[in-house]
Design goal:
heterodimer; A: 274 residues; mainly alpha; MetI-like fold; B: 299 residues; two-stranded antiparallel ribbon
Chain lengths: 274, 299
């Protein structure tokens, strides 16, 4: 019986590894073809390159695709958006949850609507024009708005589990609302804050649907946009296209390998709780 | 009464609304106002940025959505895409989760691998598959040809009758692992007592799944279904990266249509498409959720 069970598990593991090839082969395919010359890359196979010219491909791609600038853009946009999302959603959730009055309930209903419905991007574009803010600022604001509902919702659920007595004791010590929130309450939200950071980081870093409206030019573009534009200009240079794909994917993939537990749990928690 | 008032005042002082102002401002300015404005603009015919030239045309834009062939195509495609991808993502996700939920030495590593496409941006995924699906030269056709299945080798993304399913396939590839983790987290919450009891009763694997696992992970099932249905209706980046709605209008969906309306300055039409999408999402998501919620088992 035990032996039979052991064999069954072996077979299961082997079949799962075979299945996982369907994930690994396309990823390997992109990497290996980014190291070939133009002729071999155009053959689109899994063979090892006969001429390794990875360095040349990556340098050329970085120059022609304006990759360095895009990487910096991606970092700046993502960090600022995530920061705004964390600040806005935690404070809003805290006040709305603790107040619980009519205004808070109305706002909560709107936030729930925002969980399901997408942002109306065309009118948002007009509003950003009317506000006369830069394209970068507009993008950050829109990304904040698209993630705000979900993150506020996650914080609200968490604040429910923090007893009001904690606020009370902080207030007895004479702390004002801001001090109480920053010094006492916010540090308690660490688990949910990690989730919020991960969800918003992934959503902004990999975003294309909003950035293509706001940041679609050489100086403003983020990494996913470089991939999109680069292919438009180099659709016969597959070695460069793949070098570009790998470069745009690598930062987040490395992060994923180090923080996989947090990232998987965070992304799933974010979607499941909505 | 007095106490109540005092408590209210205390609440006001302790939890002042100004602390929530940044969040509320962002939300109102970039979500609520645009939604209302979108509703209004969708009733106008606009060509370009000049608002003074906008003409009120009532529900004409919405009517067009059902009359114009391109728009009709887009609506049908969105539904096909959403249904096909949801079905397979849930099926594969569930299958993988059942397999991975057993204690294997490599469980964690396998989970990491299956989940990994979810963190790669869709444009990159789209381009990788554009190459794999290249007619004749791509890896998929090459493999089919080499095992004498030439008749199965197709122009995956270039054949109008096939393209939407090929794009669906890519979406399924990207998100099945994600769906798997949703199920896995549901399964890990199921107490092992149930399985012990079932074992004593002599239940086989399928019975265990049918009578224990599945009813108890129905909330996860519910979530996976909605997330994927809504995600499918909203799809944009993957289509834009692989076919941009083509060939012809073969893979046109809501979001590509919206992007095209925006690009050519037909803002009224674009807003109408966006509002229509929102309405459909709401109509879909809410009853599905309510229906399955009723059938959930309380553990």
């Amino acid at each position: 019986m035990r032996r039979k069970e052991k064999i069954r598990r072996k077979i299961l593991a082997v079949s799962l590894w075979i299945l996982s090839l369907s994930i690994l082969i396309p990823l390997y395919f992109a990497v290996i073809n980014s190291l070939k010359d133009k002729k071999e890359a155009a053959m689109m196979n899994l063979k090892l390159p006969t001429v390794w010219q990875g360095a040349e491909n990556y340098v050329r791609m970085a120059e022609e695709g304006n990759i360095l600038q895009s990487f910096v853009n991606s970092c700046v946009m993502t960090i600022l958006s995530v920061l705004i999302i964390v600040i806005c959603s935690s404070t809003m959730a805290f006040i709305l949850e603790r107040r619980g009055d009519k205004l808070a309930r109305v706002l909560n209903i709107f936030i729930m609507i925002g969980l399901v419905l997408p942002v109306q991007i065309i009118p948002t574009y007009f509003i950003c024009n009317a506000l006369d803010i830069s394209k970068r600022a507009a993008y950050i604001c829109v990304m904040a708005a698209t993630n705000l509902s979900l993150c506020t919702f996650l914080y609200t659920g968490y604040f429910k589990s923090i007893p009001v007595e904690i606020d009370e004791s902080a207030c007895l010590d004479g702390a004002g609302p801001l001090t109480m929130f920053l010094k006492i309450i916010f540090p308690l939200t660490k688990p949910v804050t990690v989730t919020v950071i991960i969800i918003s980081f992934m959503s902004v870093w990999n975003d294309f649907g909003v950035s293509v409206y706001f940041l679609n030019n050489v100086n403003l573009q983020t990494l996913p946009l470089t991939v999109y534009n680069f292919f438009g200009n180099h659709n016969s240079d597959w070695q460069l296209v793949f070098a570009n794909v790998v470069t745009a994917t690598l930062p987040v993939l490395i992060l994923y390998l180090f923080l996989q537990r947090y990232i998987i749990d965070g992304m799933v928690a974010g979607s499941v709780k909505s | 009464m007095y106490v109540d008032k005092g408590y209210k005042r205390l609440k006001k002082r302790r939890y002042p609304y100004w602390l929530a102002v940044p969040g509320i401002t962002f939300f109102v300015l970039f979500f609520i106002i645009p939604s209302v404005m979108g509703l209004i603009l969708s009733l106008f015919n606009m060509n370009g940025y000049d608002f003074s030239k906008a003409v009120f045309i009532g529900i004409e834009n919405y009517k067009n959505a059902f009359v114009l062939p391109t728009m009709r195509r887009a609506i049908i495609n969105s539904f096909i895409f959403s249904a096909v991808t949801t079905f397979f993502k849930v099926a594969f996700g569930l299958m993988l989760a059942v397999m991975l939920n057993q204690k294997l030495k490599s469980s964690n590593l396998l989970r990491t691998v299956f989940f990994s496409p979810a963190v790669v941006n869709s444009i990159a995924v789209g381009l990788i598959f554009k190459s794999l699906m290249h007619p004749g030269k791509g890896l998929i056709d090459t493999v089919l040809n080499s095992v004498n299945l030439e008749f199965l080798a197709k122009n995956w993304l270039g054949d109008p009758s096939l393209a939407i399913y090929s794009v669906s396939f890519i979406e399924i590839w990207k998100w099945s692992g994600f769906t798997m983790v949703i199920f896995l987290s549901g399964m890990q919450a199921v107490s092992s007592d149930y399985y012990e009891a079932a074992k004593i009763d002599g239940a086989d694997g399928w019975q265990k799944f049918k009578y224990i696992t599945f009813p108890l992970i129905l909330p996860s099932f519910n979530n996976a279904l909605i997330i994927n249905l809504v995600g499918g209706l909203k799809v944009f980046d993957l289509v834009q990266a692989t076919t941009q709605g083509g060939p012809g209008t073969a893979t046109e969906v809501f979001s590509t249509l919206m992007y095209k309306s925006f690009g050519s300055g037909r803002f009224g039409e674009g807003c109408a498409v966006a509002i229509l999408l929102s309405v459909i999402i709401a109509v879909f998501a809410i009853p599905t959720y309510a229906f399955i919620e009723k059938r959930e088992v309380i553990q």
